[in-house]
Design brief:
Distance between the termini: 22 Å
Number of domains: 1
CATH architecture: 3-Layer(aba) Sandwich
Strand content: 25-35%
Helix content: 25-40%
CATH topology: Rossmann fold
Number of helices: 8
CATH class: Alpha Beta
Strand order of the largest sheet: 1-2-4-3-7-8-12-13
Largest sheet: 8 strands, mixed
Low-confidence stretches: none
Radius of gyration: 17 Å
Shape: globular
Structural class: alpha/beta
C-alpha cells in the first residue's frame, strides 16, 4: 500500500502480524535504491513492512532532514504500528546512516534488529565529502549538491553541524546494551572501506557476520546472501 502515515510521512506499507520497519541511509529514497524492496520480496507470508522517506522529494530534488527530525519520524512510525490491532511484534532493518538514526532513536520493544554496513565515523569527512563535489554550492542555510544519479540533494547546514557532534560507534554500542542486533559487514565496502568493526563484533549483544565480496549496498552477487542472512535473523 502506498500512502501517508503519521507526520504525513510518505510510505509503502503492508500490515501483518510481524512488521519490519526499514530505516534508509543518507541521500537515498525509502527503498534504499531497491535494496529494501528486494528484502521485502523474500519475507515470509505473515510478515509486513513499512518503508518511509526521511526526506521530502520533489522531482529530481531531495531535501534532507536533520538527525533530530529523522529520529522523531522513526519513533512515530514504530508507535503507529504498536497501535495497530493485528500487529504482534515489530522489527527493524537499517542501512548505513539509517543505522545511526535507529541507534540514537532507541525505539522501544523491538523484536529483532538488523544493522547493514553502519558507519562508525561520520563527522570527520561528511561535510567536506559533499560540499567539495563538483557543482556544490551554498544557498543560505542549505547546500545544493548534485548527485551522480542526476538528482540534487539540498542539505541543511544544521545537519552537517549535528553530524560533527555524533560519535556513531559509541551510539551503536550503547544501542546494543538495550537492543541486541545482527550486524552485517560488507568485506569490500567502497564507502566505509577503513571501518573497523572489532569493538562492535566483540560485544555480547551484537551478532556480527561478514558478507564476502559485498560493497556498501550489497549489490550484485552479495545481494542474495545478505537477504538470506536478514530473513533468517528476522524469522
Amino acid at each position: 500500500m502506498d500512502g501517508k502515515l503519521v507526520l504525513d510521512l510518505h510510505a509503502d506499507y503492508e500490515l501483518a502480524p510481524h512488521m519490519i520497519v526499514f530505516s534508509h541511509g543518507f541521500g537515498v529514497d525509502r527503498t534504499s535504491r531497491g535494496m529494501f524492496s528486494d528484502i521485502v520480496k523474500q519475507l515470509p507470508d505473515d510478515y509486513g513492512y513499512v518503508m518511509f522517506d526521511y526526506y521530502s522529494v520533489n522531482g529530481q530534488a531531495m531535501n534532507l532532514s536533520t538527525f533530530a527530525d529523522q529520529e522523531r519520524m522513526l519513533l512515530a512510525v514504530v508507535a503507529w504500528l504498536a497501535e495497530q490491532s493485528m500487529v504482534t511484534d515489530i522489527s527493524l532493518v537499517a542501512h548505513s546512516m539509517g543505522c545511526v538514526v535507529a541507534a540514537r532513536a532507541q525505539a522501544p520493544e523491538l523484536q529483532r534488529v538488523v544493522m547493514l554496513a553502519p558507519p562508525l565515523k561520520i563527522g570527520e569527512r561528511t561535510r567536506d565529502y559533499f560540499t567539495r563535489k563538483p557543482g556544490a554550492k551554498q544557498q543560505g542555510d542549505l547546500w545544493q549538491i548534485p548527485r551522480r544519479d542526476g538528482t540534487t540533494s539540498y542539505i541543511p547546514t544544521a545537519l552537517f553541524d549535528e553530524i560533527e557532534q555524533i560519535d556513531a560507534a559509541e551510539d551503536l554500542l550503547a544501542y546494543a546494551s538495550v537492543q541486541p542486533y545482527l550486524l552485517l559487514i560488507p568485506t569490500d565496502d567502497e564507502v566505509l572501506g577503513d571501518a573497523d568493526y572489532n569493538d562492535l563484533a566483540l560485544d555480547e549483544n551484537i551478532t556480527a557476520q561478514t558478507i564476502d565480496e559485498a560493497d556498501h549496498n550489497f549489490s550484485g552477487g552479495s545481494r542474495k546472501p545478505m537477504i538470506e542472512a536478514v530473513v533468517n535473523w528476522l524469522a
